[in-house]
Amino acid sequence: MNTVNTEPGEATPAAAGAPAAISVTGLFKSYGSIKALDSASLEVPEGTVYGLVGPNGSGKSTLIKAICGILRPDAGSVSVLGMDAVRERFAIRRRLGYMPQTSSLYEDLSPVENLRFFDGAHAEPGARERIRQTLELVQLWNRRNDPLHTFSGGMRQRASLACALLHDPRLLVLDEPTAGVDPTLRQDFWQHFHDLCRRGRTIFLSTNQMDEAMRCHRVAVIMGGGILVAEAPQTIRDRGTTTVTLELADGRRTFELSDYPVELPRLLTRFGLRPDVRRISVRQQSLEDVILDMIAGEE
Ligand code: ADP
Ligand code: MG
Question: Is residue 56 situated within a structural domain?
Answer without folding.
Answer: yes
